[in-house]
Specification:
Elements lengths: L2 H13 L2 H8 L3 H15 L4 E4 L4 E4 L1 H28 L4 E7 L4 H15 L3 E7 L2 H10 L4 E4 L9 E16 L21 E5 H13 L5 E6 L2 H9 L4 E5 L10 E5 L6 E9 L6 H13 L1
Parallel strand pairs: 3-4, 3-5, 7-8, 7-9
Antiparallel strand pairs: 1-2, 5-11, 6-9, 6-10, 6-11
Helix pairs in contact: 1-2, 1-4
Length: about 290
């Protein structure tokens, strides 16, 4: 099957009609209609249903399957073109990673900057998003590694190549109205009734543990990213509760305190798609990563 047919099929679905795709692609409508017929004969299945006199299309179940696979095929071709172009221009390749927003800065600081210095001709594509988006990026071939601190959907399709526990910690302003820097750590009780600002990735865990312990903090904010959650603490508007590494203890004007509760841990993982070969640059990074760990 001509890969252009897959691209055009995606365009038809995104446009919502063959006419809309025809205008967007500058391809005659009869030509696109004929491509759909060819694909339906090839797969021996009806892929789309025309609605309202042909001005709108609806995917069949078979069409939905094809759409998902077509995106993967097109993305694989794009990745191959990019990687070959990188090699041809003297680069070693492109490292493509899906990152949990709360972990991106740490991962860049801890691994990617050092890797970049060791392999200066490698460039990077970093995609931040929640686990559902990370899964889509990985399965479509858009990225090769997934760095997450929450369980991935369809976990059976992934291989976890590294895992460790990450503790939830609190950050509060050095002149905080809510907590004081008088103890080496804090207890969950210290947050009872206090305004807390959570990152989305850890919110469910933290609130579940609080409920089990009959602790009722005031949830001031739940933010998509850790940086946003911590900004509230920088403004002395609340206490940030986020996953954090030891190297984040010197944040300007913020006090870092471990919350002493053995339930407040999250699994930090590095995963790949099970059974899918890695690119040369990804293999090189994996070797480097294992050496660093």
């Amino acid at each position: 099957m001509d890969i252009e047919y897959y691209r055009n099929f995606i365009a038809i679905v995104e446009a919502g009609s063959i006419l809309g795709a025809s205008k967007k692609l500058s391809i005659a409508q009869p030509a696109l209609s004929n491509q759909i017929k060819v694909m339906q004969r090839f797969f021996d299945a009806q892929l789309i249903i025309a609605k309202r006199g042909g001005h709108r299309i609806e995917l069949t179940d078979a069409g939905k399957v094809l759409l998902k696979q077509a995106k993967t095929i097109v993305e694989e071709e794009r990745s191959a073109i990019k990687e070959i172009a990188d090699c041809s221009s003297g680069f070693s390749g492109t490292l493509r990673i899906s990152l949990s927003p709360s972990m991106s800065i740490w991962f860049i600081r801890r691994y990617l900057t050092k890797f970049s210095k060791k392999y200066p001709k490698v460039n990077f594509e970093l995609h931040e998003g929640p686990p559902s988006v990370q899964v889509e990026q990985m399965l479509s071939g858009k990225t090769e590694f997934c760095v997450a601190n929450a369980p991935l959907e369809e976990a059976f399709r992934f291989e976890t190549i590294y895992s460790r526990k990450e503790r939830l910690v609190s950050f509060f302003h050095k002149n905080s109205l809510f907590l004081h820097d008088t103890k080496p750590h804090i207890l969950l009780d210290d947050l009872d009734g206090k305004p807390v600002c959570l990152s989305q990735g850890c919110a469910n865990l933290f609130l579940s543990v609080c409920a089990d312990s009959h602790i009722r903090p005031q949830v001031l904010s739940i933010s998509t990213t850790k940086l946003s959650a911590m900004q509230w603490a920088k403004e002395d508007a609340g206490i940030s509760v986020v996953p954090a590494e030891l190297e984040e203890g010197d944040t300007d004007n913020l006090i870092r305190k471990i919350i002493m509760d053995e339930r407040l841990y999250m699994d930090k993982t590095l995963s790949i798609v099970k059974g899918r070969p890695l690119s040369n640059v990804a293999e090189t990074f994996l070797t480097y990563f294992h050496e660093e760990v």
